[in-house]
Amino acid sequence: MLSLLHSLLHLTILEAIFLGFAGFLLFLTVRYILESFQLGDLHKKAVFITGCDSGFGRGLALKCLEHGMPVFAGCLTRQGIESLSVDAKKFIGKSGEKGRENGRLDAFLMDVTSDESVEKVAKRLEEKCQEFGGLHAVVNNAGITGKHIADDFLDMEEYLKVAEINLWGPVRTTQAVKKLLKRAKGRVVQVASICARVGLPGLGPYTAAKYGVSGYCDVIRQELRPFGISVHILEPGFFDTPLINRQKIDAEIQEAWELAPSEVKKEYGVQYFQDSRQATQLFLNTIASSQISLVVDAYFHAITARHPRSRYQVGWDSILLFIPMSYLPTGLQDYIFTIIGLFMPKPASR
C-alpha cells in the first residue's frame, strides 16, 4: 500500500492525466455494463404515471405498454384519456412480440393539486395492484413551468400555483401510494429539472418548486431505503413539449405585464417588455430539443433497470452546460450571469 502511494506521488502531470482518464473510462464501461441489465417479469410490474395527457408522461405510458407493463395513467382531462387510449390500442389486445405479455392500461382523471382526487386514485390503486403485489413504481411527471418573467411582475399566487403542482403534487402523490410501494419494494421516479441545479432568471416559481421537490427526494431516498424503496431524479434540460408551448408562454408574459402595478411598468418600460418576449422565444427556439424520447428512455430505465441511477442528466444542454455550471463556485456563476446579462433586455430605469 505504501509503495503504491509512493509511486502515485511521483507521477508526472501527463501520467496523472492519463491515469485519471483511464480511470474515468473504466468507470463509464463498468456503469454501462451494469445499467444494461433489465428486470424480468415486466408484465407483473405495475407503474403509476401522472401527467399522461401529453409530452413525457404520455410517451412513457406508451413505452411501458409496449413492453407489456400494467400502466395506471393519471390524466387531467377526458380528452387526454381518450387520446392516450386510442394510441395505446396498438399495444393492447394483440399477441405479444418475442414472447412479451400484452400491456394493460387503466387511464383515469387525476388532479395532483387535490387531496380528494389523489386519495380517490390511491384507493383505486389499492384495489387493482393487489394482483401485482403492490406498486412497482410511481412516476411524478405532472408539472407546469409558470410565467417566464422577472420576479417583479409576479405575485404570491403565481408561486403558489406552480408549487402546488410541481412540489406539493409529487409530495401528495408519493405519500398516498407509499404503502403500495413498500409492499413491492418499488421505486419513486421524479422529474426535476436543470432548474433544480441552476437558478435561471425569469423562472422564479418553477426554479423554487424544482429545488424543493429535488430536496424532498433526497430526504426520502434515505428514509425509504430500509423498506427496499429506491428514489430516482431526472434532471432534463429544455425539451420541446406542450410544457413550453410558445404561444402560451407569450400570452402569459403579456398577461403578467398587463397586471403589473403602474410603478413596475414605469420602472421597466415597454421596450423591456417587448425585448423580453423576443429573448424568451429566441432562447427556447435555440436550446429546446425535439428529442423527447431521451427523457422517456431515461424514465423507462429508472423504472426497469436492475441498477438504475439516482440522478439522470438528460439533454446536451443539461450535460454540457447547466450541470457543469452548477458545480462552479457561486461567485463564478454570478460572474457568468453578469456577462450574459450584458446582452439581455435592460429595465428602463437602469
Task: Give a quick precis of the structure.
GO terms for molecular function: oxidoreductase activity. It holds the Pfam family adh_short. By secondary structure, this protein is of the alpha/beta class.
State the share of residues found in helices, binned by percent: 40-55%
Looking at the structure, the CATH topology is: Rossmann fold
Name of the CATH superfamily: NAD(P)-binding Rossmann-like Domain
Distance between the termini: 62 Å
CATH architecture: 3-Layer(aba) Sandwich
Q: Could you say which structural class the secondary elements and strand pairing correspond to?
A: alpha/beta
- Report strand %: 5-15%
Q: Sheet with the most strands?
A: 7 strands, parallel
| Overall 3D form | globular
Runs in which pLDDT lies below 50 for 5 or more consecutive residues are none
The figure for the number of domains is 1
Overall mean pLDDT stands at: 90
Name of the top-level CATH class: Alpha Beta
Note down, in words, how this protein is organized:
With 350 residues, this protein is α/β, with parallel strands linked by helices. It has one domain: Rossmann fold (3-Layer(aba) Sandwich). Helix content is 55%, strand content 10%. It has 14 helices and seven strands. The protein has a seven-stranded parallel beta sheet with strand order 3-2-1-4-5-6-7, with helices on both faces. The model has no long low-confidence stretch (mean pLDDT 90). Belongs to the short-chain dehydrogenases/reductases (SDR) family. GO terms for molecular function: oxidoreductase activity. InterPro entries: NAD(P)-bd_dom_sf, Sc_DH/Rdtase_CS, SDR_fam. Keywords: Membrane, Oxidoreductase, Transmembrane, Transmembrane helix.
